[in-house]
Structures are given as structure tokens and as C-alpha cells.
Amino acid sequence: MTRRRSPWLLIVTALVYVFLYAPIIVLIVFSFNASRTNVVFEGVVNQGDCGAFYWFCQLGRNRELVAAARNTFSVAAASTLASTAIGTMAALALQRYKFPGKAYSEVSLYIPIVIPEIVMGVGLLVLYSALFGFINNTFGLTGDNRLSLGLGTVILSHIAFSVPFVALVVRARLQGFDKAVEEAAMDLYANEWTTFWRVTLPIIFPGVMSGALLAFTLSLDDFIITFFTTGPGGTTLPIYVYGLLRRVTTPELNALATVWIVIVFVVLMLSQLAGRRSEAH
Amino acid sequence: MAIEQPALRVDAPPRTRWQGILLALPVTLLMTVLLVVPLLIIGVNSFAQRGPDNAIIYNFSLNNYLRLLGIAEPGTWDTLYIGILIRSLWLAFQSTVLVILVGYPLAYFIARAPRRQRNFWLFLVLVPLWTNFVIRVYAWIMILRNQGVLNSLLGWFAGLFGLPFTPLDLYPSDLAVLICMVYEFLPFMILPMFTSLEKIDDSLYEAAADLGANAWHTFWRVTFPLSLPGIVAGTILVFIPVMGTFIVSDILGGRQVILVGNLIQRQFLDARDPVFGSAATIVLMVLTLAVTLYYTRKFGFAEEAFGR
Amino acid sequence: MPEFAVELRNVSKRFPGPSGEIVTAVNDVTMQIRDGEFFSMLGPSGCGKTTSLRMIAGFELPTAGEIYIHDRPMGHTPPYKRPVNTVFQNYALFPHMTIGQNVGFGLEMQGVDPKEIKRRSSEALEMVRLAGYEKRMARQLSGGQQQRVALARALVNHPEVLLLDEPLGALDLKLRKEMQLELKRLQREVGITFVFVTHDQEEALTMSDRVAVMSAGNVLQMGAASEIYEKPNCRFVADFIGETNFLDGVVKAQTGRDVDLELAGGLPCRATADEGSQVVPGQKVTVTMRPEKLGIRPWQGADNIYDGRVEEVVYIGTDTHYTVVLAGDQRLRVREQNDDPYSRPLAGIGDAVKVYCDEVSARVLTE
Fold first, then answer.
1. Distances (CA, A) of C98 to A165, C155, C347
2. Which residue of A150, B169, C103, C160 has the fewest CB atoms within a 10 Å radius of its CB?
3. Is the model more confident about C38 or about C276?
4. Does residue C72 carry a pLDDT above 90?
């Protein structure tokens, strides 16, 4: 179908795409900067064993960074698992059942989406402080036994803000769900439990996966809530990067950014291709 | 669908109600403990007094709110905090408007691109989003500072034409914060706008043309109104985070740009005045909710733009 | 040996409507469906036919009354324990399973041996002329093919009763007509009781042994297709099934089953009353005449002849419909077959014609 595409539209669109990618390009280019202060590009670096990839190799040697990366992924994995399970159950409950207190469940579920993250971060901080203070004092915990902010509180907080999004995504999937298929299953001698496992779940599975992916992304990238609820041992990559920014910025930071971008790009490409292949069958 | 599907099952067996309760239990517990209770605590604390050593004295006092309004001391009006609030609102407003203006052409382009290409163009929009937020802010430092990429490019350009050039003093500044905001939230607006625009059937454009509408009329009378749900959804996705931001202003705005987010952050982490911080938090939350509610009531619910 | 495959005794279904009021979808319905027959429930949207079907299947429970399948009361039995299977309006095929898995699902649920499942599934698909489609997915099939899969999926379980909820609604006309005959043939071959729900009266008449005409939750008339068509017992049925002319008249006299009336405009009419039906002089009644029983070609010995003017002519291919205006501004639609080899029209708009009608074709409706 021929469409007249206004040249203005194409120009503006191209400009916006340039705007979107300019910072990314800058980040990648400067990760090869020879200058340690990384203000002006002074040619491609060529140092040590890795030559132009000097700063990338430095990343590997950075123990703090590696620890932060590991934390980031373990937090993301843990919170994704938990929030996907809880969120899917919540979506099913809200979409298909009536029960006392449903309005409260629904409202409390969606509040995190409509308030700024900082409100939630601060709230969690206040909660943990109060709770830990109370428990520590009541049980007289000292030293290493004291409950304090750390990886655990970060995971818990991530679950808290991920669940509403998972529930939202799964619920959107459920809304378009044709209940006739479940009735057909029951008509064909499957009871409620079997119908759920053999028919309902497989059909909403892509929605659940989308929700899980969303939860994973939100967790990987989260800064604000992590910032307020983290402590020793709970440093994630975004927190680490922020810390670096306040100190010294070498092209190492750019190298980290580049690695991150490349990984993201590859993962997204793969998931796109996988999606396309499952459709073709 | 069968034509006569009854609306409700009045004789649904009661055990399904229990299934519903059980399924909803984890999330209800989770949200109550991690969201509702903290908000209540903050609410209560906002009416408390600050004691020595950052303890909280639970005497009812409106002092925190009065300080925010600037009328805590009789006879003087300290507009400091109101100024901060207004600056935050103004930034959120500017960001939202700019994001709509900049993002709309792109959303329109993708929506009207051939079906097979759409995923690709969308993919391109999403990739920057998947890289880390803080890193992207850092990229803007690299671009906007005195010897940064932008000034270097402009200087080189000016050199080509032999024009004198003084570097733009963009970092740190209000403008830098705004530019970065627009950058960060562009994809959040493009996606819902795209969803709405995509739903507009091609035949509507053909019908408009058939009835004598030129491009301008078609846009304002057909395209734009139908894309409104997407714009509403996108506005919410942009406005709320911008209202609460503090990193961008911290990094790109220097010490001068203080937003509500910075204020709250400092009260809880630096100045250690949790009661005042609580009041500021409550005000931020109420303000954001009020604007969101007003907006969705006025322009219709954005739920349709969310569902995909 | 149970006499009836399905029986509804005083079944009602009420539920709360959108504004809180109580909606009665099915109102005290009693129906018997015989073993091995093709039974249809016919009526406009909202008449309660689908709700009744769903109650037989077990997806809804009656608010009052009882449903029996081969003399066994169903009570609160869930659908997966009932010996019936349903063909859904939009087929409801499982999108994440192959056709083979779809068809075999019911057997799998009943714990049938996998080899046996395979054998019977292939058989079922062959029966609906989709042999070899086992490995395909539902989305790869056309509407008509999906419908046949739905049929196979239900029939493979050898249910005692097969329920069909407007299964042909989504098909285009030609395909629908083909499927109607196909279903009829299948039913005779398999011998199972079919309970069929539709709003298309032509469909119901084509396929069914017996039809129940429903409206607003009530069964108005139940009987063989010819009976429903030739002898509608009320205005609604007469109007809903096929085309009918309605004339208002006042009774002058009745002798046996012959009734003399005066129609509006002073026209006399000789009509027939149903057996056992009594009318009194002066009673206001309605006379029904089927358009195909009237004629504008003269025939000898017609009991009623009316003068009129042709108002409209509609050519349908096999027939032509003439709308004729009589005295008293009454209109009669007359259907004449186009059996003239030279296809000459019988009359044009504005022509003066006479309408011929037999006494037997003019039926008196007291309701």
C-alpha cells in the first residue's frame, strides 16, 4: 500500500533517533579513550595486554564492580521469581474472583505505580529502620546479629515494586482471555485444577513471561528504591556507578556502559528472533 | 461469544471465593506491610516533632507543614520550600510537554510504518531504555560540559566558518536537567502514544481523505483525538517520576537546582530531619496523586492505552 | 430404557442484571428431547436458548427446576462429570495444542490408553473429513475447518448428548449451508441426540426433527418443523418463522372449522380455525396467510379473491415477491415462483391485480 510519507516527518523522526542514540554513541566511543581524565577524546587507548580494550580489561580486575554485578543479578533473579509468582496469583484473583476486601487489595496493588519512587523508597527505609530498631532492641542483638539494611532488604523492596507491574501485565493478558476455552476443557472432563494447569496457564504463559521480563528489567535498572534501602553488602551496579560518578570518572565507566549496552542489545535481539521463530511455527 | 452470556453467576459455589482470597493473600500482605504501613508511619510522623539526636517525639504538631508553606515563623513568609515545589512542578510540566512534542512524530512514524517494520523501529526506541539510567545521565555530562562533545562539535563548526565561539555553559544548569529529563522519558511517552496511534485503522485516514480533509484537518480532527488516550497514559508515566526525581538534578544541576526529591533525600539521609522529610513526602505524594486523578478524570482513563 | 435423552422440568434461571434488577433468562421451561433426534432451540437473542443449553452442559445451574439426562437428575454436577459434550460458538479450540491433541483431550482426561486415543482421534478427524490434520495448529485452519475440529473433539468421546451453541454463525452463507447438511448427515450416521441452538429459523427448519421456538425465556411452541411452519400457535411464532401476512378481522360466524370473518375495509374472508378452537361472533382475531400460499395468477375455486394494486415487486431469483395493497390499506405479500421459461413478470408496480387465497391457507389466530 503506497503511503505519502511527508519528508518533514522523516527528517524529524531521524533527528529524534539521533537524539536517542547520541549519548549511547558517545559512551561507546569514549570507552576507547586514551585520556584517563576522559574529558576530551585523545585518541584510541593502547595500553597493556588488551590494547584498545584496555579499559574493558580493567573492568574485569575491578573487584568491587564484579561484586556489584553479582549482587545486581542475584537481586534481579530473586525478586523476579518471587514477584512473578505473587503477581500472577494477584492478577488471577483480581480478574476472576469476587471476595471481601477485593477493593483494598486492588488499590494497594496499584499505588506503587502512581506514586513517585522516592516516596516508596523513603517509606521502606522508615519501615526497615523502625522494624529493625524494634527487633534489635527487644532481642538485644549486637554486632553481626543486628538486623540492618543490606542485600535482603534490597530484594524485598524490589519485590514490592515489581509485583504491581507483573500483575498489570498478566491482568491485561487475562482480559483478552476467552473463557470459552476453559469451559471447553471442563466440557471435556477436566476439573478446575487440571483446566488451570493444562489450558489456562499455558495460554497466559506469554503474558506471565512478559511480566517476569518486566520485573527483571525493573530490578536491574532500579536506582532510587535501592538507594534508600541498601546497606553494606547490598551494592548493586547502579549504586556502584553513582558512587563512581561522585569520585573519579575514567573511561572504565564508559567501558562498563558499553558492555552493558552490548549485552542488552544481544539479549533483546535474541528474544526478538525467538519470538519471531515461535510465531512462524 | 454467545449472545446471551449472563453477567454474573449468582449461584457461584462459595469455594471459589476462598480460592480468590488465597490467591490474593500474598500480594495483599506484601503491599500492606511494605507500602500501606510505611505510608501510615510517614503520615503520622509528619505531624510529629523532631527531638534531640533525631528521635521522634510524638506530640501532634503542624509545624512541619507550616515550615513547608513558609509560615512557621509569625510575621515572615519563607518561600524557600514553596519555591522548590513550584520548581519541581514546572520541571515536570516542561518535561511532559517537550516529551510529547518530541516523541509524537516518532510515535506517528512507527505507527504508520509498514507492519513488518514496526517492531524494528520500536526495538530501536527501547534499546536505550534498557541501558542503565545513571549511566545515561553520565553520558549527558560528557556531552554538555564545557569541553564536552557538544561544545567541541560547535567549536569545530565555528572554526570551519571562522566564527568566534564561546563554549555554552550547560553543565551544570537547569537546562541540562531538562534536556536529560526529556531524554530519559522519551521512550515512556513514545510507547503508549504508539499503542494508541497504531489502533487507528487505516480506513479512517482514507475516509477522512474521501470526505475532503487535507493533512492538517485529518491530523487535528481524526488522528490527534484518537491518540489522546496514549498521550494521557504517557503523561502519567512521565509526570510522576519527574516529580520525584533527585538524581538528575543532583548530578546535572549542581548545587543550585534543588527539587522536591532532593529535599526529601537530604532530610532523610543528610540533615536527618525525618519528620520534616515525612511532611515533604506526604505533600509530594498528595500533589502527584491529585494531578494524576484530575488528569485522568478529565481526559478519560488511560487503561485502554496500557492494555496491549 | 429412558424415554428421553434430555429433560427439563420447570427449569428457571434468574440472575442479577446490570442495574441490580432480577433478569429471568429462562422461565419455568419444561421440555423433553427424544433419544437420537436432532432437536433445535430457536429464537431471537435473549430468548433463553443459549442459557438453557448451558444449563444442560453444566456451565450454569438452574435457579429452579431440574435437568435430567437419560432420566438421571444432574443437580449440581459439574460439566466435567456430565455425559454431554459441547460445540462452542467460536469453537474454543485450545490454541497451544495441536489439532490431534485438541481432539484427544477429552479421551486423555478420561484416562484412555494413548494408542487408543490416537486411533480414535484419527477416526474422528476422518469422519469430519480432516484426516491427516493432527499435527497442525488451530490458527492455521480456516473457520470451517476449525468448526469441524470442534465437532470431532466433541464426538470422539461418544457423549450421550451433543450440544451445539450456534456453531455455524461465523461461517459464510455457502459454507453454512454445506455444514448444515453435513451436520444432519453426521447426526444420522452417529445416531447421537443433537441439541442445536440457533437464531436462524431457516437453519432450524432445515436440520431439525423437532424445533422449540423460544422467546423471552419461554417456550412458545414445540414440534416438527412442518408443524411449526404450517400451524404456528401464536403471532410471535407465525412471525418469526418464515414470512407471514397478518390481517385483522372480526368474526361473523363459525361452522365446524370454517370461519367467516370481515377484514378491515369490509372485505369478506373465509378462514380455517385450528381443531378444537372456538370463536364467537364479534371476536377480534388475526388471520395469517403464508405468501407462498397466495397467488396473483388466477386459479379456479379460490375461496377468497381480493382486488388490489401492486405496490412493490422484489425479484429474488427463484421467486418474485409482490406487495399488493387492498382496500382498507391492508397489504398482502404474495410469493410467486418464477417458473415461466420466458421469465415474463406477472405484474408491474401500479398494476391492478387480484389476490387468490384458499380457505385452508387462511388461518385464524386467536392469540
1. 32, 17, 59
2. B169
3. C38
4. yes
